[in-house]
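Blinded run. Sample ID left blank on purpose so nobody reads anything into the name before looking at the predicted structure. Input follows.
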Amino acid sequence: MDKPKFIAILNSDCVQLEEREELLNAVLLNQDWIIILLKNMSDIQNKESYFSARTLELVCKQDLKLILPYLDKFYLLLPKIKLEGVVRSSAKIIELLTINYFIKKDALYIEKINGKHLEQFTESCFDWMISDKSIAIQAHSMYALYLLGIKFDWIHIELALIIEKGIPTGSIGYKNRGRKVLKAIETNTRLKL
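Blinded prediction complete.
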């Protein structure tokens, strides 16, 4: 796939399942096209920016280290995004990054993810937890915040308060994830999902 076709598919009204696979493979072959995905995601008024976010999420699931050269652009984008699909994919990417940083303790991620990145991940995840976002976004944010709380103690305190407040009115998924996170915080044990 050439670059003009890649951009055209990303900006189309509806990306089919087979095109999603094409987009993923195109980025895996042309890793510098991640910048195109991030640029599209920054167009917060464009409903098709979801396709770029979803493609970036799939790329990160396939090979997370590909986003590392673009972490500064990604973290600067986080406070601006508003569309549910873009936020959901971004929350998943943060979750993947924090897993590699805190659970896997991968030296590459520890080297590349700096304090500014961790601070923005924390801020964005808390914003998504206290706003009216889908359970998927809140679940990814909850887990990322739990992991971030390993480094910053205060996060667990704030996260527990938010979860306790949300459990009575939350969905079944929110309640299940929330109780697991609360138990891990209270018992100071590793969260198992």
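Unblinding after everyone has recorded impressions. The CA atoms of residues 118 and 146 lie 12 Å apart.
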